[in-house]
Amino acid sequence: MKYEILDCTLRDGGYYTDWNFSSNLVKNYLKAIAKTPVKFIELGYLSNQNDHHGPYFHLNTKILKTAKQILNKNQKISVMINAKEIKDTQTLIKLIDKNQKFIDTIRFAVDIEKLNIVEKILKAKKKFKKISFNLNLMYLSKWIDKYDYAKKKINTLKDKCDVISLVDSFGALKPQQIYNFFKKISNNKIKFGCHFHNNCGLALANSLAAIEAGCELVDTTIKGMGRGAGNAETELLLASNHSKEIKISGFEFNNLLEEFEKMKSKLNWGSSYAYAYAASNGYSQSEMMDLIQKRRLNVGLALKTISTKLKNKNIIKFENFKKIKKILKKPPVLIGGASSFKIYGQSFLENLDSKQSIILSGSNALSNFLDLKTKLKNPIFLIISGSELEKIQSFKNDKKNKLKNISAFIVEKEFFAENKLLKKYKNKIIFSSSIGLNPLTLTGQFLIKVGYKSLFLAFFDGQPETEKGRVVMKETEESLKLLQNKGLKINSYTKTFLKVSQVNPWI
Fold first, then answer.
1. What is the C-alpha to C-alpha distance for residues 501 and 356, in angstroms, rounded to an integer?
2. How far is CA 65 from CA 39, 71, 98, 130, 156, in A?
3. Same domain, 186 and 326
């Protein structure tokens, strides 16, 4: 069966790198992919959103032009646009217009139940006749057995777009299901594509099943790089194609595979028990990825969180706080986990008003605090979320023994039962109903609960040099906005990556 490959490594892989890729990696990728039969190369997103994503979320003419020059003349450049960002047809036209010279295909990912939102999008197609407009229909597993429903919905799109790709968003479908579905909805008037997630390790098998049933466009990525468990592997689909003479054994392609293998070892995408479990229970891989990366849960705790299927998870309840809240005499200072606390923390803490409460945000802040040889009269709180309890459990005994000097602990109840270390301090513990919440969010929510309107920060330096550090920084920025919107006034005593006013503690 004849089909074409769309490699979306930089677009889908951006979920792990925040759409930041080194110039050398991109150059090597383009030079290597140019020597393969891959027809479409999706470089990233077109977006004018005010966010912190990297250049491959905000593609510009320079990036597109450079790619066009490196790729071979038969290859086409694809970009994706978030449909929810488009307010009206004119907004879309303006976004495309300045880049249209270097774009061959534009794709939009939409829920099949919300096709009304793409009407304004597809109207712009008339202006850009040389550009292919494609739709990626999400959540295939929800309607894979509803053949009549699927045909009816898809038929409404046949004259409005060039390709309709079906996306297994949860990554739980099996090859036989895929084959049967594509066979039953096949239509000579519509070109179908597919995009399979690899939660259960079946993305490549599902792609081959779709091809066998008549699918004409297949999404893949190098080494399967992509959100959560990732996707079908470009190199494996190329290797399985026996109908063409494919020369991919050259130095450049092998070198590229080695580069992405190193990234995979570091960033840890790919199928796993955790992703397979999430998929089988109807959770998207993005949800599992957020639990593991953003909310500092190890795989076991992430699975536990998924399996509980908690409702109203945004409504946080606190237990046993009425007596302990009396300890708070002044707006507290939340200490971050930066290593600079070890260097400057001694003089900083000794300069604080003895009535000001100190809140340590997690295991790193606690460890750094316990390394300081200072005696304080200040009330000391420790806030623990996600996997932080396990980290504290691994402390050496001399540090564990110092926990008796902590005035109060704010602990997520979901994980407390399995931890023996804090059971003897149960009368000092404030229980939170949250799951792996960012320490800043948890602290702020608690302060709002007990009636405080302000909070000071210290030693929130950020770690932009590491992938994990950037993920935590982004989440902390989101936490800041959430709390500010709730009316909490937040300032910092020390320099910080967060956009807050700095108050000099020495004046």
1. 19
2. 17, 10, 12, 17, 35
3. no
C-alpha 296/C-alpha 289 separation (Å) is 10
Q: In angstroms, what CA-CA distances link 162 with 157, 269, 282, 398?
A: 9, 31, 30, 67
Any idea what DSSP says for residue 279? H
Residues sharing a CB contact under 8 Å with residue 272, sequence separation 6 or more, in sequence order: 229, 299
The answer to whether 443 and 383 have CB atoms below 8 angstroms apart is yes
The reply to whether 70 and 212 lie within a common domain is yes
- Exposure string over 295-315, b if 16+ CB within 10 A, otherwise e: bbbebebbbbbbeeeeeeeee
Classify residue 270 by its DSSP letter.
S
**Distance, CA of 338 to chain centre:** 23
pLDDT of residue 294: 59
pLDDT on residue 477: 93
Domain of 453, in residue numbers: 318-502
In 3D space, the residue among 327, 321, 357, 297 whose CA is nearest the CA of residue 446 turns out to be 321
Cβ–Cβ under 8 Å, residues 168 and 144: no
Q: How far apart are CA 319 and CA 431, in angstroms?
A: 5
Give phi and psi for 261, each to the nearest 5: -65, -40
3-state helix, strand, coil in the chain (%, to 5): 45, 20, 40
Task: Tell me the angle at which helices 340-351 and 363-371 cross, rounded to the nearest 10 degrees.
Answer: 70
Q: What angle do CA 149, 151, 153 make, to 5 degrees?
A: 70
Residues of the chain where predicted confidence (pLDDT) is lower than 70: 1, 242-250, 283-285, 287, 291-314, 417-419, 467
Sign of CA dihedral 71, 76, 77, 80: negative
Question: Which pLDDT score is estimated for 375?
Answer: 85
SS3 state of residue 205: helix
Residue 1 vs residues 40, 209, 212, 282, 396: alpha-carbon distances, Å:
18, 11, 6, 32, 62
Which residue, among 469, 7, 68, 6, has the nearest Cα to 256 in the 3D structure?
A: 7
Q: What is the DSSP string of 290-347?
A: HHHHTS---HHHHHHHHHHT-SSTTS--EES-TTGGGG--EEEEEE---THHHHHHHH
Is 281 among the domain residues?
no
What is the domain-level CATH number for residue 248?
Answer: 3.20.20.70
The residue to which tokens 């002044």 are assigned: 330
| 350-376 pLDDT, tens digit each | 999 988 999 999 999 999 999 987 889
Task: For residues 65 and 340, give the distance between their C-alpha atoms in angstroms, rounded to a whole number.
Answer: 43
Structurally, the chain folds into a number of domains equal to: 2
Q: Report if pTM > 0.90.
A: no
Same domain, 436 and 338: yes
